[in-house]
Each structure stands twice: as structure tokens, then as C-alpha cells.
């Protein structure tokens, strides 16, 4: 395979320096090469020239891979329809042995198919001068066709020695996306960002409003457009708007701003084509350094390499309260800081910055009994703390199965219904990190100030894996702000795994939906049995109830009945007659799915027949997702009335009380009149407002049965309790 081929000698390496090497300088040939982790290689991937055409249109969609010792250490972004691409991407790589050359491979991206090889080259690291920037030109070759000219790649490199400096600093996680022919998986990579205590300096809030006069890509003279955004390693993909050249998206999302000077947002527009590669509509960029802070900018961007405009609203705001510190620096233990935080989220400050709902402090103390990930019988664990799109990392504790991190992370809470995810990984230098375990903790289930041992779960959060992690979490929030935020759209995660087809997942979703439908079917059978007088006493009671309700019916009785149902379930729970049952069926299905996922991971390199019929696969994934949405909708309604999340059930009671009072005292015609006036004038009052359905937004915060199982806390081994551990240490 091409990934494993090595050059026979340095003489045969196909690269040429643009700058001549100073013979008086320090050459790597005189430096001891056996010391692992001694060198840092900073590479800027500049551009390519005269690359090979691999598509039928006479162009290619090139991207570049860097490998050392057979391990992929960097992958560039894709430049579409260009044989002279400009990347200007930087990579920072730790090098253990300079005698291992850097292997550069160029591919043409083909959606849904195997990417085409466009050439490769080797960079001999022993020929680089230390601490000296060098421009390098690499001639691409194909080992099978050595006489074919495949173009050149231009790099800027600098190699610096690392004197065993400690990488025990707090790091941010950068997620690098790997594509495979079957599905996308995400992996963690070490990068220069990892080795810095580097927090984002601000928030870029983007609202994608609309597109105007986009290029027609389909035979019907229309397109099915969607838009991709990229800022550094952060990505976002809009929804698809079918059959239109003037799409109205009305989507809002946030990116983190890491650089003082701003950065560049790359934007590409695409036409969705089922079963084949999506068509490129055009591209544009937003230079954030040219925008003023704390102000909303309306941008109308002309699409390059295509037709039409995109309309955006972009706002740059200062960074929220996000920080990393040692246990000695504790905001909540400082009386003045604690009072300031409590004042910020007091009931008196309801309308001050509605997006700032609360404050979260997470103490990541230690872990015990972790899984062995290295051949040495140890692991190099580090911990990732995630709240929606906010991701922070601890330092790595090397060669340890019982690491102590003793770090404090603070976040601003934008949605009290968010779930805190804490994941432990094993660091593997310059390669994908190994998963060791994970916990997911809903913010509303947290007990403040309590140090707890959480049993680590598998990737699907369905069962335990080896080890526990000790966390102490505090949540302070404004309940009124949290309630108001419940009625607006939920924040979408812009870094997620792609949906993939799974027989077990499809079956699970079908069974879940069938159970929801069967509730309605059984209710219909029950009503019909009353009409058929199968049970005369029951039918007589139903007939009397029907006459009474119809004769006395008023509209306010609808929310009143729902209110009574919630109240009835509440009294059942507090009286000990809990009608909520643990869904063992869903849990069993989740465990079966995990086994299938493990099998899929082992066979991920094998290409099955299903990977080659993407049209059918896409339809199956759509059916799978629709079944999940329908089943989740029914389960969320059930879990609202079952008091699965008490905060949401109390909020439903307040809303139903308000609706009952309004419908009782205000005539229906006035209510409909106010609703109609609001609908007709909304576009005039706020032309760029994002439409939403408050009821659906509320239900999106209620967990489905699957999520209830995933968020369920497992009971730790009694030997892992903090008190027991202290006694053992004293002993």
C-alpha cells in the first residue's frame, strides 16, 4: 500500500529547496536522533501547482495528508474544482525520529466514492536546518507511473529542538475529521493548539438569513441549496432548502473566536443531489478582522466561482466567563466572587442579557482504575469537558491508570437543559487518541458542591466501561431566564458524527415508533369498545361522561385536563406510587446496538456492498431518522407528564395555568385576533427574525427514552467512595 512505502535513500527524495541551505548552519545529521520527542516540526501548507485532473470536468478537489511512520498527523481542507489550490494551513507536529521522513499524499475528494490518488512525495527531515524557516517545493510522483508529471506542492517548514519540555499544560481540544467510505468518525489530534493554555477570546454569532439568485444546478432549473461554514477547525452545515434559487434559511449558530485579529470564515454553497456527489454552487469569505465588536453587521456576500448572494448577520462579542484554573483558584470559594455571581443571576436581573442563563463550575479531580491502552500496561489519560459547543481539556498525566488532574473549568450556561459531557482519552502522540470512557450529566440533575464518583460509560452511554471519575460540580442559574430560553430553538451541535446506517438502530427506532403508535391504537380500541357495549357499566359511565362534557364544554377545559393529568401524576410520585418504569426494552436494544457498533468499528476498513449504493443508503438513513423523530416526539410527551424532568413539568403546569385563565376570561375571537395581528406584522417588525414553534422547542428539551437511559447515573463500586479512599490512605 502507498501508506507504508518508504524511500530507499535520501537521494531519491523528490523535493527541492527554494532557499539554499547555509552550510555553516546546524544540520540535523549532526544531531542525536534517537531521543524521542525532541523536535517540533511547524509546517505551512502553501499551495499546489499544476495538479493532476481526476474528475470528468477536467478539475480535481484536492486535499493533502501528512504521515510520519505510517501514522496520519495532518489532513488539510478540501479545495474544490481547482488544480492550483491555495491552502495556507498550518500544522505543528512532534517528531520522535528524524530518520522517519514526512510522507505527503494528495487526493481528489469524491463524495460517496473512494478518493482518487493524485501523487505523493517525501520530505527528508535530516536535511533541514534547525531553527531556520525553509521554503520547500515537492514534486508529486506516482510510484506505479514514475514518468507521469503530477504537479508540485509548496511548503514552508521550520524544525526546532524540544528539550524535553513538559506538556503538562491545560489544552483545548481540536477535532479533526476523518472521512471513510462508510461514515465519518471524529478523532482527537495533538496540535499546536493543544500545547497552549489557549482560550477563545470572543464569540462570533452568525445568522444565515437567505440566498438570492443562486445558480441553478438541477435539470428543472432549480437547486436544493445548503451552506457550509468553517472557521479554523469549527464547522457548521445549514439545513437543505429544496427546489429554490432564493432559499430562506433563518438559522443562527455561534463560533468561538481564538485569535486577537479575528480570522477568516470560509463559506461554500452546495446543491444537494441524492445518490451522487453534491454540486458546488459558489464560495465566499468573511474577514472578521474588518468587523467592529459588539455590533451586528448585515453582510450581502457575492458568491465567487458561481452566481448569487448570501445574506448574513454577523456579531462579534467579548468572551463569556470561560476559564481553566487549578483547584487553588476557586471562584465560588471566594466570598466576593460568589456574591457577584449570585447577584448576576438573581431574580432581579431577569431581562439583563437573556442569553446568559447561568454559571457552571466543574472540578475535574481524578480518575481511578482506568482501562489499559498502551502496550506498557499503562495509559496517558487526559480529560475533555464539553458543554454544547464549548470544549476544554485538562493536561495529560503520563503512564498512569489513576490520574489526578485537579482542574477547575467554568462555563456560561446558555441553556439549563444542556448536558455536561466528560470524556477520558488516552493520548497517543501524533495519532488518534483512544477512548477510555465517558459520562453525560444533565445540568438539572446536578447536586451542587457534592464530590461524586461517576462510573465511566462506553461511547453510546449504554453500559459501564472500566474506571470511575471524580467530579464536583456547581450550577447557579436564573430560573426565569432558563424558562424563557426553553421556548426558543435549541442550540445545535456543529461538531457531530454523521448519521450512519445501522440495522440495529433502524430496528430500534421502528420498535419505539410502533410502541407510540400502539398507545393510540389501544386508546382507539378502548373507545370503540365503549360504543360496542362490551362492558355495560363502563359504556354507561362513558355515555354519561360524554353528555356532561359536551353540554358543559368550554375551550379552557383542554389545558385544564392536561393540568389535572400532570397534577395526578405528581401526587402518585410523591405518594410512592411512581408510574414511571425503567425502560428495559430500550436499554436492551441500546446494548445490542453497541455490540453491532463494535463489529462495525473492526470492519470499518472493509467495503461492503451497501457503501456502493449510496442512493439506497441515504433513503434508509432518512427513514431511520424519521422513525427516531416520531418515536422521540411521543416519548417526550409521555416523559413531560411522567415528571422525568421536574423543572420542565413545573414549567408546563405554569403554562397550562396561564392558558386556562386566558381561555376562561378572554373570548376566543380576541385571542385569534391577537395571534393573527402578530403573524401578519412579524415580518414587518423584525424582518430577520428566526421563526420557531415554542411548543416544539419545549418538547426538544424533554429527554426521549433513549436519552433517559444514556443520562442515567450508574452506581459506583463502594470501594471507590472518597471516604473509603481516605481511610485506605491513612491505613
Features:
calcium, 4 domains, 731 residues, five-stranded antiparallel β-sheet, disordered N terminus, globular, alpha+beta, 30% strand, Immunoglobulin-like, disordered C terminus, 12 helices
Describe this entry's structure for a reader.
The chain is an alpha+beta fold. It is built from twelve helices and 28 strands. The strands form seven sheets. The protein has a five-stranded antiparallel β-sheet, with no helix packed on it. A five-stranded antiparallel β-sheet has the order 20-24-21-28-27, with helices on one face. A four-stranded antiparallel β-sheet has the order 4-3-6-7, with no helix packed on it. α3 packs antiparallel against α6 (about 585-600), α3 (about 505-530) packs across α7 and α5 runs antiparallel to α8. The longest helix is centred in the last third of the chain and has 29 residues, at about 505-530. The protein starts with 14 loop residues before the first strand and ends with a helix. Residues about 1-35, about 165-200, about 595-610 and about 720-730 have low confidence and may be disordered. It holds the Pfam family C2. One of its GO terms (molecular function) is calcium ion binding. Keywords: Calcium, Cytoplasmic vesicle, Endoplasmic reticulum, Endosome, Membrane, Metal-binding, Repeat, Synapse, Transmembrane, Transmembrane helix. InterPro entries: C2_dom, C2_domain_sf, MCTP_C.
Please provide a brief summary of the model.
The protein contains 12 helices and 28 strands. The protein has 731 residues and is an alpha+beta fold.
Amino acid at each position: 500500500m502507498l501508506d507504508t512505502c518508504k524511500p530507499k535513500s535520501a537521494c531519491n527524495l523528490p523535493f527541492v529547496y527554494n532557499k539554499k541551505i547555509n552550510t555553516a548552519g546546524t544540520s540535523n545529521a549532526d544531531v542525536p536522533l534517537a531521543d524521542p520527542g525532541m523536535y517540533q516540526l511547524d509546517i505551512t501548507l502553501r499551495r499546489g501547482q499544476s495538479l493532476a485532473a481526476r474528475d470528468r470536468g477536467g478539475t480535481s478537489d484536492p486535499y493533502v495528508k501528512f504521515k510520519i511512520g505510517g501514522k496520519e498527523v495532518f489532513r488539510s481542507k478540501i479545495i474544490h474544482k481547482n488544480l492550483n489550490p491555495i491552502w495556507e494551513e498550518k500544522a505543528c507536529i512532534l517528531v520522535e525520529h528524524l530518520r522517519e521522513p514526512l510522507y505527503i499524499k494528495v487526493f481528489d475528494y469524491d463524495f460517496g466514492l473512494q478518493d482518487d490518488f493524485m501523487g505523493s512525495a517525501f520530505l527528508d527531515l535530516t536535511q533541514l536546518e534547525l531553527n531556520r524557516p525553509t521554503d520547500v517545493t515537492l514534486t508529486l510522483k506516482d510510484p506505479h507511473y514514475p514518468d507521469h508529471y503530477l504537479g508540485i506542492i509548496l511548503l514552508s517548514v521550520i524544525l526546532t529542538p524540544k528539550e524535553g519540555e513538559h506538556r503538562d499544560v491545560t489544552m483545548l481540544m481540536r477535532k479533526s475529521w476523518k472521512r471513510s467510505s462508510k461514515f465519518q468518525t471524529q478523532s482527537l489530534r495533538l496540535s499546536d493548539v493543544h500545547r497552549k493554555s489557549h482560550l477563545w477570546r470572543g464569540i462570533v454569532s452568525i445568522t444565515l438569513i437567505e440566498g438570492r439568485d443562486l445558480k441553478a444546478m438541477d435539470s428543472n432549473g432549480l437547486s436544493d441549496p445548503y451552506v457550509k461554514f468553517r472557521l479554523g477547525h469549527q464547522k457548521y452545515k445549514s439545513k437543505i432548502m429544496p427546489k429554490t434559487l432564493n432559499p430562506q434559511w433563518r438559522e443562527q449558530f455561534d463560533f468561538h473566536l481564538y485569535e486577537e485579529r479575528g480570522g477568516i470564515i470560509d463559506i461554500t454553497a452546495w446543491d444537494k443531489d441524492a445518490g451522487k456527489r453534491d454540486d458546488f454552487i459558489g464560495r465566499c469569505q468573511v474577514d472578521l478582522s474588518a468587523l467592529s465588536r459588539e455590533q451586528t453587521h448585515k453582510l450581502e456576500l457575492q458568491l465567487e466561482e458561481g452566481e448569487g448572494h448570501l445574506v448574513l448577520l454577523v456579531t462579534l462579542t467579548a468572551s463569556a466567563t470561560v476559564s481553566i484554573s487549578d483547584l487553588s483558584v476557586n471562584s465560588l470559594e471566594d466570598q466576593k466572587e460568589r456574591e457577584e455571581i449570585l447577584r448576576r443571576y438573581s431574580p432581579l436581573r431577569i431581562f439583563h442579557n437573556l442569553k446568559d442563563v447561568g454559571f457552571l463550575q466543574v472540578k475535574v479531580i481524578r480518575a481511578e482504575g482506568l482501562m489499559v491502552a498502551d502496550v506498557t500496561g499503562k495509559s496517558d489519560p487526559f480529560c475533555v469537558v464539553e458543554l454544547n459547543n464549548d470544549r476544554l481539556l485538562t493536561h495529560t498525566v503520563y503512564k498512569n491508570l489513576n490520574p489526578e488532574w485537579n482542574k477547575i473549568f467554568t462555563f456560561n450556561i446558555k441553556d439549563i437543559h444542556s448536558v455536561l459531557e466528560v470524556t477520558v482519552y488516552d493520548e497517543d502522540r501524533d495519532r488518534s487518541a483512544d477512548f477510555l470512557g465517558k459520562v453525560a450529566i444533565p445540568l438539572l440533575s446536578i447536586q451542587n458542591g457534592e464530590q461524586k464518583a461517576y462510573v465511566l460509560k462506553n461511547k453510546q452511554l449504554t453500559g459501564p466501561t472500566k474506571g470511575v471519575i471524580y467530579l464536583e460540580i456547581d450550577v447557579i442559574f436564573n430560573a426565569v431566564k432558563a424558562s424563557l430560553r426553553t421556548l426558543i430553538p435549541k442550540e445545535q451541535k456543529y461538531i457531530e458524527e454523521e448519521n450512519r446506517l445501522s440495522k440495529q438502530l433502524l430496528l430500534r427506532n421502528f420498535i419505539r415508533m410502533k410502541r407510540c403508535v400502539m398507545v393510540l391504537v389501544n386508546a382507539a380500541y378502548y373507545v370503540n369498545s365503549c360504543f360496542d357495549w362490551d362492558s355495560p357499566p363502563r359504556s354507561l359511565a362513558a355515555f354519561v361522561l360524554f353528555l356532561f362534557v359536551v353540554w358543559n364544554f368550554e375551550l379552557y377545559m383542554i389545558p385544564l385536563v392536561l393540568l389535572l393529568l400532570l397534577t395526578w401524576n405528581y401526587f402518585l410520585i410523591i405518594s410512592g406510587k411512581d408510574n414511571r418504569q425503567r425502560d428495559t426494552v430500550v436499554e436492551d436494544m441500546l446494548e445490542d446496538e453497541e455490540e453491532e457498533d463494535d463489529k462495525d468499528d473492526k470492519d470499518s476498513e472493509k467495503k461492503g456492498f451497501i457503501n456502493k449504493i449510496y442512493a439506497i443508503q441515504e433513503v434508509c438513513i432518512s427513514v431511520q431518522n424519521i422513525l427516531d423523530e416520531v418515536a422521540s416526539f411521543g416519548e417526550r410527551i409521555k416523559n413531560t407528564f411522567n415528571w422525568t424532568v421536574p423543572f420542565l413539568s413545573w414549567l408546563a403546569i405554569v403554562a397550562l395555568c396561564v392558558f386556562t385563565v386566558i381561555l376562561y376570561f378572554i373570548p376566543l375571537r380576541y385571542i385569534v385576533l391577537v395571534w393573527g395581528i402578530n403573524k401578519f406584522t412579524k415580518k414587518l417588525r423584525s424582518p430577520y427574525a428566526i421563526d420557531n414553534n415554542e411548543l416544539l422547542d419545549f418538547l426538544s428539551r424533554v429527554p426521549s427514552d433513549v436519552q433517559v437511559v444514556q443520562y442515567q447515573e450508574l452506581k459506583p463500586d463502594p470501594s471507590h467512595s472518597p471516604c473509603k479512599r481516605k481511610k485506605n490512605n491513612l491505613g
